[in-house]
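Subject: Re: docking follow-up (S-adenosylmethionine)

Dear J.,

Thanks for your patience while I sorted out the input files. As discussed at Tuesday's group meeting, I've set up the holo structure prediction with S-adenosylmethionine included as the bound ligand rather than trying to dock it afterwards. The sequence and the ligand SMILES I used are pasted below, so you can double-check that they match what you have on your end before we go further.
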Amino acid sequence: MAQFEKSRWADNGFSRNYRDEAEIYLPQRRHFIDLALSFYGHFIAGNRAARILDLGCGDGLLIQQLLQSFAPEEVTLVDGSDAMLAAAKARLGERGDIRFIRASFQDLLNQDPLPGNFDFIYSSLAIHHLASTEKKDLYAYIYRHLAPGGSFVHYDVVLPCSDTLEKWYLSLWRQWITEQPDLGKREKLLLIPEQYKGNPDNVPDSLEAQLQMLKQIGFDNVDCYGKNGIFALFGGSR
Ligand SMILES: C[S@@+](CC[C@H](N)C(=O)[O-])C[C@H]1O[C@@H](n2cnc3c(N)ncnc32)[C@H](O)[C@@H]1O
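The structure tokens for the complex came back this morning:
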């Protein structure tokens, strides 16, 4: 994979556009976040001392939503982008129980700057930038950093198992964008599915391959918890 610094996410304009527009162009984003929070409520929230990690946190939307309903002991947000971390700090505020770490996934694998283990590790729409072997290395890293009984929940794009299905899924995505009320941005946003396909930074693996990786590493309860076209929420527990 290209180093984080060479990817589009290192460009502050690119990351600002994502923060401004993701809500409009990501199909059922709120539904996927609600599912992740339901998972957290069902499996983790009983542990009042829960430690949470968000990998590729962006501007911290998931953590903000989680803190509205739950009171974990501490939260760690990791991202390769200073601009994203600044946006996450602005959203969440500076608090003693929240830690922000600027690190790429490569830094995690090479230097392991994260102290201790976590009860809930979440990642959304970031790991698909890693090549297959790097995904597996990162999943193994995540497994090593999960406390017993902890879980990993991953919301990301996945590679459809055929071109035929991919064409349909991309048309479903365009349909979602067409139905959004912001007419001013529609024309530009309708290009996003094609841009996603044409961007060499995006190297998703199939859902099946990734579930298999998690199982091989030793995760339990491995499953796809929700899916819409190329977007899926999946994971496992330790
Ligand atoms: C599409 S955004 C998703 C942000 C957030 N998780 C969300 O769902 O809104 C992808 C995020 O992953 C981060 N990212 C991409 N590649 C990364 C890498 N190799 N290491 C660390 N962060 C990375 C980007 O900076 C960006 O914040």
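A couple of observations from a first look. The chain has a mean pLDDT of 95. The CA atoms of residues 212 and 221 lie 12 Å apart.

Let me know if you'd like me to rerun anything.

Best regards,
T.
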